[in-house]
Design a protein that fits this description.
binds ligand PBG, eight-stranded parallel barrel, TIM Barrel, alpha/beta, about 325 residues
Length: about 325
């Protein structure tokens, strides 16, 4: 540049609202959101979760009301997590296989009320059902054993599919579970039941409030580092995704969200498949705490973080802010 003015003024297209709208590269809509919901026993029950301000567990009847709310807001799918009664938790997590468990009752009630106008995504892992809080079966030394766990996860997936689940979402990080679940679903003719694999799920410090919500925090001894990924690793995430796709996953998830957007982008660039991210409970709590402390405007923080997921390459985001964000977006 030799003249008295810049040859290119990138500020020119930013000068007015209409021009910013015209040049916007990424859009966030309610259709990009997946709303995680916690289910609890009883009827007419709402239990606020202390470490997740603004989020509650709902009994099945009120979960249906939340599902209808999601539908009205243009949110395409809800994700369900059960708070299993303590007396129904066991070492082997066999409540996960009970066709009348809380999860199955919630799935049926939502599908009956909403039909195909709303998708139901269900979590596959044993932590809401085990008395030790691990996602799988443990041996005498407390090690989570892989292949025996996969067998139970297959049974859990079929149990959910029979109840009407649209998307099976295994969050357990066992090796080989996607292939085993896919084969079992095909075997029972659930050819259009999707699998959204938690493919790159990290052993993260951001899951605390979720464990309160499903009642596993107090039960969990130790950590989940022998199956969830090391936060230091990125190449390994690509291997996880590659295997899950080869085994029959329809879409893959990266979790947590915001601290792992580099993984989202690498996965998207490498595989060009639908990628989702989970803005997890600790991230939600962080935004709420920042807003409460006056560090930022809550609505602006919510929309900016969700937009960042889209920009990084996500097809959608699981977020506890889904209903609020959908309202802000005019859903
Ligand atoms: C466990 C599971 C976890 C979350 C979803 N499924 C926690 C964990 O791995 O311990 C976390 C979600 C969140 O923090 O919002 N199967």
């Amino acid at each position: 540049m030799t003249g008295l003015y810049p040859a290119t003024r990138l500020r020119r297209t930013r000068a007015t609202a209409w021009s910013r709208a015209l040049h916007r590269e990424t859009v966030l809509t309610p259709r990009d959101l997946i709303w995680p919901l916690f289910v609890t026993e009883g009827s007419g029950v709402e239990e606020p979760i202390g470490s997740l301000p603004g989020v509650s567990r709902w009994s099945v009847d009120l979960i249906v009301a939340r599902a209808k709310e999601a539908m009205a807001l243009g949110i395409p799918v809800v994700a369900l997590f059960p708070n299993t009664q303590p007396e129904r938790r066991s070492d082997d997590g066999k409540e996960a296989l009970n066709p009348d468990n809380l999860m199955c009752r919630a799935i049926k009630a939502i599908k009956q009320a909403c039909g195909d106008d709303l998708g139901v995504l269900t979590d596959v892992a044993l932590d809401p059902y085990t008395s030790h809080g691990q996602d799988g079966l443990i041996d005498a030394g407390g090690y989570v054993v892989n292949d025996a766990t996969v067998e139970v996860l297959v049974g859990q997936s079929l149990n959910q599919a029979r109840a009407g689940a649209d998307v099976i979402a295994p969050s357990d990080m066992m090796d080989g579970r996607i292939g085993a679940i896919r084969e079992a679903l095909e075997g029972e003719d659930f050819v259009n039941v999707q699998i959204m694999s938690y493919a790159a799920k990290y052993a993260s410090a951001f899951y605390g409030p979720f464990r309160d919500a499903v009642g596993s925090r107090g039960l969990l001894k130790g950590d989940k580092k022998t199956y969830q990924m090391d936060p230091a690793n990125a190449e390994e995430a690509l291997r996880e995704v590659e295997l899950d796709l080869a085994e029959g996953a329809d879409s893959v998830m990266v979790k947590p969200g915001l601290p792992y957007l580099d993984i989202v982008r690498r996965v998207k660039d490498a595989f060009e498949v639908p990628v989702f991210a989970y803005q997890v409970s600790g991230e939600y709590a962080m935004i709420e705490a920042a807003a409460a402390a006056g560090a930022g405007d809550r609505d602006a923080l919510v929309l900016e973080t969700l937009l960042a997921f889209k920009r990084a390459g996500c097809s959608g985001v699981l977020t506890y802010h889904a209903a609020h964000a959908a309202r802000l977006l005019g859903g």
